[in-house]
Design goal:
About 45% of the residues lie in helices and about 0% in strands. It is built from 16 helices and two strands. About 35% of the residues are buried. The N terminus is likely disordered.
Length: about 375
């Protein structure tokens, strides 16, 4: 997988604005990394460290917001910033014979402290919602990360262990989706409500500790080569929370955490624009683009070398700086809509897609070696 940072020098962020590059233009960010992964920090609503700590206490994984003016959580922003930048300053100190994650996924050792092998979980735990709910040790073994979790027996993931069994990982993912009331439709990661969605969504709306699990699963998807699976899942959860009203308690976790696990700027922007259209009350939506800065007097607009063709074309056609910015924003919106089109499938076509996708998915998983 490699380090996405390259020669970029890591600077510890101290504010939310330093953690969030979501609203940078494509020309300044997405073109630097394969697939548009994040490289540099951008701008958003400014917040001091003291305010950020208070915001983290008030707005953290499903907790209600008591303050009249909502603020973004600095804790959440910093955590996801480090994840999207592949854990800067992370050092692997273990020897290959200590790779517990890999050995667990190869079914050679059980998870600690319960002594359960992965094959038992994959073959016997599906649909056992009581066990999946109340056991708090398995999740960090099934979805490893390069960060320490609550189960100190589980080791942090290493670069070599990222080669864990893709087949077993996908099976573990489908088990957890079913626990949440969701089903995986195809090998592209598209998801939909499962048959048991009503009971499971009601439970998910009330058991907010599962939002921490979802954040971990999303992170692990990106670590183990399934980055493309995040977008459909986060979009579904946002739709259920903001449009359908089935998961109202999830909306802040989805916006503070789930969205920001996606490494591509354009995908995050598309999700946030979708959320902004449906968020109530709209004046409390704090995840949108920063307030526009005043455009300098005519003749002072300078284009950086390497700007992509959308930016150059927009400014080139403009008769004034203001018009140029408007054209740029419109074309950037269009670009986001095109990039995010993979999950904007009409609901009427989902049934046919599901029938085809389920067969393809089963065949696909079977072809992946253990």
């Amino acid at each position: 997988m490699g380090n996405l940072m390259g020669s970029w020098r890591y600077k510890e962020p101290s504010t939310v604005e330093e953690c969030d590059s979501t609203w940078e233009t494509d020309s300044e960010s997405d073109e630097h990394q394969p697939g548009g992964e994040e490289e540099d920090s951008g701008i958003s609503e400014s917040m001091s460290p003291a305010d950020a700590v208070r915001g983290a206490e008030q707005l953290d994984h499903g907790s209600p917001q008591s303050s009249t003016r909502m603020k973004r959580s600095f804790y959440a922003a910093k955590d996801l910033y480090k994840y999207r930048h592949s854990y800067p300053n992370y050092k692997e100190l273990r020897q290959p014979n200590e790779y517990r994650n890999l050995r667990f996924y190869l079914n050679k050792i059980p998870l600690v402290p319960d002594g359960i092998y992965i094959e038992e979980i994959l073959t016997k735990w599906r649909g056992d919602y009581e066990k999946l709910e109340h056991n708090h040790t398995y999740i960090q073994w099934l979805f490893p990360l390069r960060e320490q979790g609550l189960n100190f027996y589980a080791q942090e993931l290493t670069q070599d262990e990222i080669k864990v069994s893709k087949r077993r990982f996908l099976l573990a993912y489908t088990i957890m989706l079913d626990f949440f009331g969701i089903k995986l439709l195809d090998k592209n990661g598209n998801v939909a409500r499962a048959l048991n969605w009503q009971d499971r969504f009601q439970h998910l709306n009330e058991s907010q500790h599962n939002y921490l699990r979802i954040t971990r699963i999303l992170k692990s998807l990106g670590e183990l080569g399934f980055e493309s699976f995040k977008l459909p899942l986060v979009h579904l959860l946002l739709e259920e929370a903001l449009v359908e009203g089935t998961l109202p308690n999830m909306r802040h976790s989805a916006l503070e955490y789930f969205v920001y696990t996606l490494r591509q700027h354009a995908q995050r922007r598309a999700l946030l624009r979708f959320a902004q259209r449906h968020y109530q009350p709209p004046e409390n939506f704090i995840w949108g683009p920063p307030k526009k800065k005043r455009i300098p007097a005519s003749g002072s607009t300078v284009m950086k070398a390497g700007k992509n063709e959308v930016v150059e074309r927009s400014v080139g056609k403009a008769r004034s700086p203001r018009e140029g910015r408007n054209n740029l924003e419109r074309e950037a919106d269009d670009m986001d809509e095109r990039k995010s089109g993979e999950w904007k499938t009409a609901k009427g076509s989902m049934v046919l897609q599901e029938v085809r996708g389920r067969v393809d998915l089963e065949e696909y998983i079977e072809t992946i070696p253990l």
